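Intended use. Records like the one below are meant for learning the mapping from a protein sequence to its folded structure. Do not use them to infer anything beyond what is encoded.
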Amino acid sequence: MKRSLYNLFVFEAKTPIVDFCKILEVDDEIFDDIRGESDSLGGLILEFESKIPESGSVIDIKQFRFEITDASQRKINTVKVLIDNDKIDKDTEE
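Structure written out for the chain above:
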């Protein structure tokens, strides 16, 4: 994992979801409704999209924007993650 800016991170797609949540200090159950059997960040995105997205694809899940920075036909390799603080603020107000 590399941190680019305050809310911008780059993760390997094989990063476990639990580790991703710990690093970003979010509840590790945040993705339970969509993760299916997936344990990794790439698996979560695959579960959400029902396909392997191409490099450059952008996927919004909850307060996270995932940009696929490297992928092959068989797997996702790296993912850029942007945290949308405005969405977090709106979710906590409701």
